[in-house]
Design goal:
Strand order of the largest sheet: 1-2-3-4-5-6-7-8
CATH class: Alpha Beta
Oligomer: single chain
Helix content: 40-55%
Shape: globular
Strand content: 15-25%
Structural class: alpha/beta
CATH superfamily: Aldolase class I
Radius of gyration: 17 Å
Number of helices: 12
Bound molecules: phosphoenolpyruvate
CATH topology: TIM Barrel
Largest sheet: 8 strands, parallel, barrel
Length: 262
C-alpha cells in the first residue's frame, strides 16, 4: 500500500489575482512544513496561470512541490463551447489535477454521474488526474440512503475507467451536509464511507488496485479536526474549501495528514 497523503485546496470563486498570487507564494514557500503530504492548489480558472508561475509549475512540474489543479473542465478537447475550458488547456497552463463533480457543480449546474464520467475520461486521456467528488445530502443520510447514493455515484462517475486510469484518480468523499457548514463528519462516519468506496473500487478493478487509490475526505476540514480524520485507515487526505484560503490553516491540515503516513 503506497498512498501518499494528498491535501487539495479548492479556492472556489474567491480571491483576486494579487491575493491568489500571494496565497500560492506563501504555500509554496512553506510547503516544507507539510513535506510528507502532496499539496494541490485549485484556484479559479482566470488565475491558473498566475498561480502556476507562483508555484513554479508553468512547465508542468513544480520545484515548490505544490501541484496545480483546476476546479472544472469540459469533456471535449476543443470546439464551439462558449465559456468552457478544455483539459488540454489546463495541462498547457501547468495543471496536474482537476476537481470533477463537486457537489456545487452537481447541485447548481446539473452535473450528473454521466457528465462527470465523460469529464473523468477526458481528463485522463489528456494526462490530467481527476479528483472525483461524491457524497450524500443530509436528507439522504437521514433517510438511510448514504450507501446507496455513494455507490451509485462511484459506479456511475468511474464507469469504464481502466485499472491504470483508476490508479491516477483521486476520489473525494464530501458529504454535502458538511461542505461549508462547519459540521464535519465524525472520523468514524467518514471512515465507514471511505471503506465502502474502497470496496467499490475493488469491484471496479481489483482489491490490489483499490488499495493504491487515494480517497480524500472533504467537508469543513480545519487544522483542529484534521488529525482525527487523518488517523483513520482509509482517509488519505482532504479536499479543503474555506480553510484553504489561509496558508496557515491549509498547511496545518496538510501537516496533520503528513503525521499519519499510509
Ligand atoms: C469543498 O467545497 O470541497 C469543501 C470541502 O468546502 P469546506 O472545506 O469549506 O467545507
Amino acid at each position: 500500500m503506497d498512498r501518499r497523503k494528498i491535501v487539495a485546496g479548492n479556492w472556489k470563486m474567491n480571491l483576486d489575482r494579487a491575493k491568489a498570487r500571494e496565497l500560492a507564494a506563501a504555500v509554496a514557500a512553506r510547503a516544507g512544513e507539510a513535506a510528507a503530504t502532496e499539496l494541490v492548489l485549485c484556484p479559479p480558472a482566470p488565475y491558473l496561470d498566475t498561480v502556476a508561475t507562483a508555484l513554479g509549475s508553468a512547465g508542468g512540474s513544480s520545484p515548490s512541490g505544490v501541484a496545480l489543479g483546476a476546479q472544472n473542465m469540459h469533456d471535449k478537447a476543443s470546439g464551439a463551447f462558449t465559456g468552457e475550458v478544455a483539459a488540454p488547456m489546463l495541462l498547457d497552463v501547468g495543471c496536474r489535477y482537476v476537481i470533477l463533480g463537486h457537489s456545487e457543480r452537481r447541485t447548481l449546474f446539473g452535473e450528473t454521474d454521466k457528465i462527470v464520467n465523460a469529464k473523468a475520461k477526458a481528463a485522463l486521456a489528456a494526462g490530467l488526474m481527476p479528483i472525483v467528488c461524491v457524497g450524500e445530502t443530509l436528507e439522504e443520510r437521514e433517510g438511510g440512503r448514504t450507501e446507496a447514493v455513494v455507490t451509485t455515484q462511484v459506479n456511475g462517475s468511474l464507469a469504464g475507467l481502466t485499472a491504470s486510469d483508476l490508479e491516477k484518480t483521486v476520489v473525494a468523499y464530501e458529504p454535502v451536509w458538511a461542505i461549508g457548514t462547519g459540521k464535519v463528519a465524525t472520523p468514524q462516519q467518514a471512515q465507514d464511507v471511505h471503506a465502502l468506496i474502497r470496496a467499490l473500487l475493488g469491484k471496479l478493478a481489483s482489491p490490489t488496485l483499490a488499495a493504491r487509490v487515494r480517497i480524500q475526505y472533504g467537508g469543513s476540514v480545519k487544522p483542529d479536526n484534521a488529525a482525527d480524520l487523518a488517523s483513520q485507515p482509509d482517509i488519505d487526505g482532504a479536499l479543503v474549501g474555506g480553510a484553504s484560503l489561509k496558508a496557515d490553516d491549509f498547511l496545518g491540515i496538510a501537516a496533520a495528514f503528513g503525521r499519519h503516513p499510509a
